[in-house]
Each structure stands twice: as structure tokens, then as C-alpha cells.
């Protein structure tokens, strides 16, 4: 597979109280947004915090794009990404991921 690829990850997070959940959500958002400009091949990163408050929703979504599959594979083991994963520790109780090629459209 060649060309740009989109990497989307959603998490459910720990937290006994609404305040703990809110702090966990903000921590994930802050840490991942801190990766902007630090990883070669990472062309876009956006982190959203759920506002729906439905019981089946995930807490946070990461929407990112990479130049190609090689860049996405390198990201998985990049020291900055590993630092974020370590900082999050066991905060995550559920993780869902989708990776797919981005179709380039000619206009």
C-alpha cells in the first residue's frame, strides 16, 4: 500500500468521578497534541473529546494522517509516541483503531 494513510484511534478511559474522567480526557488530548511537528511523516493530528455523554461512547478520538504506511509503522515505535503511551499508563480501559488509505482525488 502506498500513498497517504489515515490512523484513527478511540479510547475509553478510567475515572471513578466525572472530574477524574475529565482530567483523563484532557491528559490524552494534551499528550497527543504535543506530538505535532515531532514525528516525520505525521502530516495531521487532531484529538477530540466526546461531548455526547452517551454510555456507549468512547471518551477520546485521535484522528491522524501519515505520508504512507512506512511513516505510520515508524510512528508506532517512535520515542515520542512511546513516551506518550508510557505517560498514559493504565489510563486506557478500551482501545479501538482503524487505519485506511486516503484516496487522492483529482479536481
From TrEMBL:
Pfam families: Dabb (PF07876)
Domain Stress-response A/B barrel: 5-100
Protein name per the record: Dabb family protein
